[in-house]
Design a protein that fits this description.
single chain; alpha/beta; seven-stranded mixed β-sheet
Length: 483
């Protein structure tokens, strides 16, 4: 048998579609799945009449590949990846390349890369976004890990990746270690935030303004033609218009409990670990947790009565303000995500190219939107930009949206409609632009009960002081606080 260009392990939806995509682009494939029926169905079905070989074992897969072997693992994150590696190791040679294309947690990728590099193997953690359609027609891919592997896999993955209007491939090398999976984690966190904010605007229109599904779909269609143009806005329009065979709106039949697979939670946890205010994504994760308490919420709805003020204003004005609130909040979400990436780059020694990351996300992925070009421009103008909101384009945009943004949040509060993501985005904006916050009182409280010390406004940073607030504490103090 002629040796193949790429091995693919895991031939479920994503793996099989990526294999077909690579085949379309002229690469020969060796496929393996421990589910024999799945392997057979793929090879004899979509893979038939193509240069795709089915392999009954990891050993056979390795024997069928050109060297250095390039093996893409498209299996569930966690133990399944480690199982694949264990199966492959006895049959690999120095210089072979393993690529994890799943949603692995980046510390696991760091661990695996270090362990395999000690054996002379090259390991790549590659985030893949775009779902089933993206995998088949052109995904967004975020590879990172063993840098020497890139020259071997670049022609393959840039060929199958989504392309921007200018022809750039939405696949660029991200960085060492777990950088690729970290950037994919940030992508998914931003995705959580975007989806939650869209849901909040939907609830305000439906419950607050009494708009029909068709009326809301028309609004999202209009928004998709402007500054909010994005994949998620586009599919929201389509969802609101979709009817089943009986003419019923499917959206109205779906139970209001949201699932999650963990990447949003990982993003929020990493932000806490690094002391970064990733408030919007955190609220989006907690909103899903709250939605899952369906039975509790139904019970509480019969007991807890809030003060609700019916909307009496101009609906068209509020819809316009909703557009501004959603836009400004999305900008905050990206600003927070990029701030966390900058902190991670410092923490882990990664040399992230923030403009290239925006380029990756312009096509194929779930969060693709029209203003990603502006993010790239911002970092090209200032590679040391600390926060996107300080870039002239973004600062002007959020400031211009303020009036509508504040009107939406205050209207939602008066109507008793929860908007945790939109409101926390506004709170972050107000906090970030405040030269002085009430943390002086917080530090006084900490020093009062725990002698945790504080800094003074009339002394250099790094000098710490303690007050004996009660006259009983003496001069002893605890260790200084961490900023």
């Amino acid at each position: 048998m002629e040796q193949k260009d790429v091995g693919v392990i895991g031939l479920a939806v994503m793996g099989s579609n990526l294999a077909l995509n690579m085949s379309d682009n002229g690469f020969s494939i060796a496929g393996y799945d421990r589910n024999e029926a799945l392997l057979s169905n793929f090879v004899n079905g979509p893979g038939a009449d193509r240069d795709i070989a089915g392999c009954a074992s990891a050993e056979k897969l390795c024997a069928t590949l050109k060297t250095p072997r390039k093996i893409l693992m498209m299996v569930r994150a966690g133990e399944a990846i480690d199982w694949c590696i264990e199966q492959l190791l006895p049959h690999l040679e120095e210089g072979d390349i393993l690529i994890d294309g799943g949603n692995s947690h980046f510390p696991d990728t760091v661990r695996r890369a270090n362990a395999l590099e000690e054996k002379g193997l090259r390991y790549v953690g590659m985030g893949v976004s775009g779902g089933e359609e993206g995998a088949r027609r052109g995904p967004c891919m975020m590879p990172g890990g063993s840098a020497d592997a890139w020259k071997h896999i670049q022609p393959i993955f840039q060929a199958i990746a989504a392309k921007t209007d200018s022809g750039d491939a939405c696949c660029q090398w991200v960085g060492d270690g777990g950088a690729g999976h970290f950037v994919k984690m940030i992508h998914n966190g931003i995705e959580y935030g975007d989806m939650q904010m869209i849901c909040e605007t939907y609830m305000l229109m439906k419950q607050g303004l009494g708009m029909s599904n068709e009326e809301m779909a028309d609004v999202f269609e209009e928004w998709n033609e402007g500054e909010l143009g994005s994949y998620l806005i586009e599919i929201t329009r389509d969802i609101l218009r979709y009817k089943n065979a009986d003419g019923e709106a499917v959206i109205d039949q779906i139970l209001d409990t949201a699932g999650q697979k963990g990447t949003g939670k990982w993003t929020a946890v990493e932000a806490l670990h690094m002391g970064q205010p990733l408030t919007l994504i955190g609220e989006a994760v907690f909103a899903r947790c709250l939605s899952a308490l369906k039975e509790d919420r139904v019970k509480a709805a019969g007991i807890l009565k809030g003060r609700v003020q019916p909307f009496t204003g101009d609906k068209k004005v509020l819809v316009k303000d909703l557009q501004q609130a959603l836009y400004a909040s999305k900008l905050v979400s990206y600003a927070q995500g990029y701030q966390l990436m900058r902190a991670a780059a410092s923490e882990y020694g990664w040399n992230l190219n923030y403009g290239d990351i925006a380029l990756l996300w312009r096509g194929g992925c779930i969060i693709r939107c029209v203003f990603l070009d502006k993010i790239r421009d911002a970092f090209e103008a200032d590679s040391e930009l600390g926060n996107l909101l300080l870039d002239p384009f973004f600062s002007e945009a959020v400031q211009n949206a303020q009036d509508g943004w504040r009107n939406v949040v205050s209207t939602a509060v008066q109507q008793g409609i929860p908007v945790p993501a939109l409101s926390t985005a506004l709170a972050y904006f107000d906090g970030y632009r405040s030269a002085r916050l009430p943390a002086n009182l917080l530090q006084a409280q900490r020093d009062y009960f725990g002698a945790h010390t504080y800094e003074r406004i009339d002394r250099p940073r790094g000098e710490f002081f303690h007050t004996d607030w009660t006259g009983l504490g003496g001069d002893a103090s605890a260790s200084t606080y961490t900023v």
